[in-house]
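Key result, reporting period 2: structure in, sequence out.
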């Protein structure tokens, strides 16, 4: 079970790094600081929901 959790966490981290690289390459800018905060919170909550779905206890 622990090995499965570690693999899921590694995949999530790799996916997150790929997204950051894509944003950097596309040079995406946010309209306002509030918009950036909202988007970051949205994706952070999605990751927590994914972890909860896998019962990772994050």
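The corresponding designed sequence is given below.
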């Amino acid at each position: 079970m622990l090995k499965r959790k570690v693999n899921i966490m590694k995949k999530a981290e790799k996916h997150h790094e790929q997204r950051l690289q894509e944003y950097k390459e596309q040079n995406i800018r946010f309209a306002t600081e509030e918009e950036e905060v909202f988007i970051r919170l949205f994706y952070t909550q999605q990751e927590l929901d994914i972890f909860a779905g896998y019962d990772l206890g994050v």
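The chain has one domain: 2-53. Helices lie at 2-26, 33-53. This case is discussed further under Risks and Mitigation.
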